Amino acid sequence: MKRFAEYDGWKIEASPTVLVRQRLFQTGVVIERDDGERFVLSDLGNRVYR
Q1: What is the model's pLDDT at position 33?
Q2: Do 31 and 41 touch, CB atoms closer than 8 A?
Q3: Range(s) of the domain holding residue 38
Q4: How would you write 14-50 as a 3-class SS string?
Q5: Nearest to 9 by CA among 38, 44, 46, 34
């Protein structure tokens, strides 16, 4: 799985976090533009696979 991607001047970093007790991965992402504008999205759902 690639954690980093770039698209049209945006840098995208995926960050799966392990939820040990539930045996799941919690999805999150950081999206940043070259000028410093930044969005942090956490808790985008739980997944069985990374």
Answers
A1: 92
A2: yes
A3: 4-47
A4: ECCEEECCCCEEECCEEEEECCCCEEEECCCCEECCC
A5: 34
How many separate domains does the chain show? 1
- What pLDDT digit, counting tens, does each position of 1-50 carry? 567 889 888 999 987 777 777 778 888 889 999 888 999 988 776 777 66
Strands 46-47, 38-41: pairing is unpaired
CA torsion 40-43-44-50 (nearest 10°) is: 100
Sheet strand arrangement including 38-41: 4-7, 10-14, 29-33, 38-41
pTM of the model: 0.63
